[in-house]
What we know:
The chain is mostly helical. It contains 6 helices and no strands. The chain has helices at 3-28, 36-62, 69-100, 110-113, 116-139, 141-174. Helix 5 packs across helix 6 (141-174).
Amino acid sequence: MTAPVRNRLLVLGVLWGLLLAAVPALLMTNPYRLTGFLVAGLACAALSGCVGTLAAGRRFAKSAGRSGFLAGVGTGAFQGLVGGGVAAFLIWGLMAVTISGFTLLDPVELSVLMSPRVFTGSFFVALSAFVYALVGGLLLGPLFGTLVNRAVRAGDAGGNAGGDAAGEKEDLVVR
């Protein structure tokens, strides 16, 4: 995968992660204040969107170059699965730290993070984030997966055009 394709996928991933996280973040932060938790949550969403989109783009680049509706659904579902897994892990840690009452002025012991109340409370929030990202990937997969597929295909077409022509000339010379 070339650097321009990777950069396009990173931008798509950031936008995807922030788009999915913006609606629940705005609904849950009433009154609408910019807090550290909101900023950290949006950063986690952007990071998980990037990782999921890069993984989906690599998977599509290694595939047989399928195109169409089903390829978009598959790419979107894979992006939702990977991005949702990363988001769940990050949100689980973020929620565990938040529920435990950790602050920089008054840090807590690590044993508090593993208490049943903190562990299960943050687990179910993380599970909800995973399901939300997976369902978003499935429902919006035809649209977003097609965007990822086009970004990868456009980069491959521009980067391999000269290599294919040289490969054909080599084949003709060998024959």
